[in-house]
Amino acid sequence: xxxxxxxxxxxxxxxxxxxxxxxxxxxxxxxxxxxxxxxxxxxxxxxxxxxxxxxxxxxxxxxxxxxxxxxxxxxxxxxxxxxxxxxxxxxxxxxxxxxxxxxxxxxxxxxxxxxxxxxxxxxxxxxxxxxxxxxxxxxxxxxxxxxxxxxxxxxxxxxxxxxxxxxxxxxxxxxxxxxxxxxxxxxxxxxxxxxxxxxxxxxxxxxxxxxxxxxxxxxxxxxxxxxxxxxxxxxxxxxxxxxxxxxxxxx
Length: 251
Fold this sequence. Notes:
The protein is of the alpha/beta class. The protein has one domain: P-loop containing nucleotide triphosphate hydrolases (Rossmann fold, 3-Layer(aba) Sandwich).
């Protein structure tokens, strides 16, 4: 059961709001005036062509980078005034898993220790996470010799070990085979079922159709369209989304 002392802090992170956020680097505007509001639960897919700013948007939400102007706030407090209280309940899974040179179980143990889980509680939690990721038979294996799909499942359950309220996923199934993709998607659905808000960057339109409740479509660092998934895929409103879904080049 989640510590009720943490619930007070976690409840305070909502909503997560980006207000006219701009990110500039090398004289270029990479994120251009993005305003976005995230509420608990559901799955938001972030889509768009290469270079649209999708991964940068995730990093701004996570507080890994700071905007050049505009504001990212958690529960009404700007990110620089929360003392990390909002960001501490955000988990991030990158496209390329970053794993320790330890066993699968030891990677999870290290994560739980980092999250402040008592030593006596960790074996039970590790067993739960191994089962969630279908990794029970791999507990003693070095994490870095796992297949790509197994590594990504480990990255996912390691992130879920924090019991986050917001899970940010940057192309977690890229380059995976269908079976491995299905396993990753099952973990995402399990997170959403527990009322974790998931923001998923994906180029896979079929995956987005399967997974998304709503879609944020980026082009040149701007939100060209946002709406529920059915409307986005069946009746896109913006010319950019129409061109993208039709397979035409976006310049």
